[in-house]
Design goal:
Length: about 180
């Protein structure tokens, strides 16, 4: 067992955004962390099916700038901004993420409207068989038209200007082990 005292708290900021506060304590040094990023989309039968992304990213290589994967770059930008995972490997002791959220500028494509699950599974020494799983973080998000206040609306919504306001807002709904 490499981790202990893992916790996650979600706080709703408004209808369009929630932030996560995550903490974990590494009991032993993590020298070679690999993260598997998988994205799923919910269909009409409420089942999540794979959607476009299933990649492995070595976090130590990303931080050391030895890997230039586009998914690794997105992950590194989030880590730099919201966590203390900003130093090279090994990781040991208390690690955290504060006010973590994923906005639409981080997502490389415009997602179709719907519900999504982003699964981040981290491993130590992934090349070993079997690899040691450190844990899984699952983000549940919705791509939707942003909710606006009736007070701030300047003109009534009709078919022509709804296309102007169609944006992708990603809201973490739940994070779990």
């Amino acid at each position: 067992m490499l981790t202990g005292n893992a916790s996650c708290i979600l706080k709703a900021i408004n209808w369009n955004m929630a932030v996560a506060q995550m903490d974990v304590y590494f009991l032993q040094p993590v020298n070679n962390m690999t993260v598997r990023i998988k994205v799923f989309k919910r269909d009409y039968s409420n089942k999540y099916h794979p959607f476009l992304v299933d990649v492995l990213v070595n976090l130590c290589d990303i931080i050391g700038r030895r890997n230039h994967s586009p998914y690794g770059k997105y992950m590194w930008n989030l880590l730099k901004r919201y966590t203390n995972f900003n130093h090279s490997c090994p990781f040991l002791g208390y690690m955290f993420a504060r006010d973590l959220f994923i906005d639409e500028s981080v997502v490389p494509i415009k997602l179709p409207l719907g519900y999504y699950q982003v699964s981040l599974t981290s491993f130590e020494n992934y090349r070993d068989k079997p690899p040691l799983c450190l844990g899984t973080i699952k983000f549940y998000a919705q791509s939707m038209i942003p909710v606006t206040s009736k007070r701030n609306r300047t003109k009534p919504m009709n078919r022509t200007n709804i296309q102007d306001t169609l944006q992708t807002a990603i809201i973490p709904v739940q994070i779990g082990n």
